[in-house]
Request: fold
Amino acid sequence: MIEDKNPKRTPLSELGEFKLIEHLTKHFEINQKSTVKSIGDDAAILSFGDKETVISTDLLVEGVHFDLSYVPLKHLGYKAVMVNLSDICAMNAMPTQITVSIAVSNRFPLEALEELYAGITTAAKLYNVDVVGGDTTSSTSGLIISVTALGEVEKDNAVLRSGAKPNDLLVVSCDIGGAYMGLQVLEREKEVFKVNPNSQPDLSMYTYIVERQLKPEARKDIITLLTQLEVRPTSMIDISDGLSSEIIHLCKQSNVGVDLYETKIPLDPQVISTCEEFNIDSTTIALNGGEDYELLMTVSQEDYPKIKGNPNLTVIGYMTEKDKGMHLVTRADEKIAIIAKGWNALNNQS
Amino acid sequence: MIEDKNPKRTPLSELGEFKLIEHLTKHFEINQKSTVKSIGDDAAILSFGDKETVISTDLLVEGVHFDLSYVPLKHLGYKAVMVNLSDICAMNAMPTQITVSIAVSNRFPLEALEELYAGITTAAKLYNVDVVGGDTTSSTSGLIISVTALGEVEKDNAVLRSGAKPNDLLVVSCDIGGAYMGLQVLEREKEVFKVNPNSQPDLSMYTYIVERQLKPEARKDIITLLTQLEVRPTSMIDISDGLSSEIIHLCKQSNVGVDLYETKIPLDPQVISTCEEFNIDSTTIALNGGEDYELLMTVSQEDYPKIKGNPNLTVIGYMTEKDKGMHLVTRADEKIAIIAKGWNALNNQS
Reply:
């Protein structure tokens, strides 16, 4: 969060578009068998054989999805890739390729883009995806990142949002609410920094939740785990907007209801303690927080023995007939209707 | 170009993100056999069998790539799709699917987005491509459109930029320079409109070139024609930046030189007359104008009888050994080095 006051600044106009693309993309390696031809032509060429191809795309806009005053560009590049890989994983598919397009205003020097691409390169390498194309252009204000991801899955093995059945178990990976509380901590530090620019933030108490916000991971490992356990979820979605919003998606698209148990929602101790510090109810955060990129799935009761006791998967409720509705069963054993209060990009407009 | 002063304006915040996506995407039809599952899940599912898949992506930014004071939103939607389909065609592939992401500031009401999507829908229908996904979000200023296109091509039939050989013929489809001169006319009218907002522009003399600017077409028909003629170009690229810039791409990536004949460059009479009116050299426009989205290709001498006399294909030069360099042979039979002065997005920054 402390800027180098004299970083090297090479204006983008010094390079021109083609040299810039060449400069930024030269570190991208090709490792996927399905990549026939990568960056450098009108389009990339892919070859998927007998498998099915999944594709997903996301647009990240400065001032709406990220704030560069506390998000390092390298982390932003990493996160922009993760957001898309997470969607591929949520189809029960393995990510294979991405394209990355950016628009930048001339307030960004070359070194800033190098940082951004360093994060993209790290993400691509770690998740074994090939960067096969993109577009680099200018914007009149701020930074815009558009990523499209492709993945492959065995025929008929993709998991949709629409396959949940009554009595299926509702399961979430890892724990949730961390990314949102990390954001609260970062925003508080930003306010402190505005008042006293020489303040050095001590974030050591919040390392887990700050990392959940700045460096989320797509749960490709959970897809591998599910394959190993021989569990094919009946429906699946990634948690980008918040648990309640994602549960509603699954219920609506599957024509089912749900009973979600408050006491079962997995929360990291740092989420609980930070919620206490900020005087916020941790269940509210878990339901509406968003940006955790964990996987939310429904699993047939038959498969329960396979996932029972697995530290990566927590049963948090079960699906019901549609006419039973969508409910949270509270600690006090009361039933409250689940409503979506998830982060809504279109209400965040300035 | 004349606005309705009292159009209906529904604020986007009235709908929310999910309802907006539903509203904007409900007219997209699914016609491609390779589309297994379209919009409405974390990712779309595609299945390409034995063919190869090509993918291309472009980012269009308001104030950089388009000016809404003279580009109707419907045309913009159409053009955003064409720019990408053109890249797919330039691979000798047939476009099959697109994803469309947009970011909009709250200055745009719902009706504006409906116009934009009407153009996207028209383009998708006319070119028989399925819209299979996208992202809809807000921006802090202006409109940003990101389109990713997929296409398919028989195995080993894709045409790269790198396959040109010395003695191959340099061939361009249709005619060039129109889109750039159309832009000059529109920009002149905008200046007139600023001085006198009640002026009614008479564009009847410029219909062809204005349409080339506002409603370009991806030359999918040329790909079909080439298949019918049994001509597989040795290299190909679409003309987005200008003839000289694209020729340089082909030469550099194929390690060849070129002799381009000024007298052979196909120009529409309206381009010639408008160049005279604006007192600009028409060859300069053809070389540097851009945005025509015609196809530039190299064809083996053996295939010359197949393309000879075809009104859609004009031989404008031939490739040479690399050490001969890249030259324009002028009307006066002088040789001038070809240099790229194409439209450069990164120098256009405000």
Notes: The longest strand of chain A covers residues 94-104.
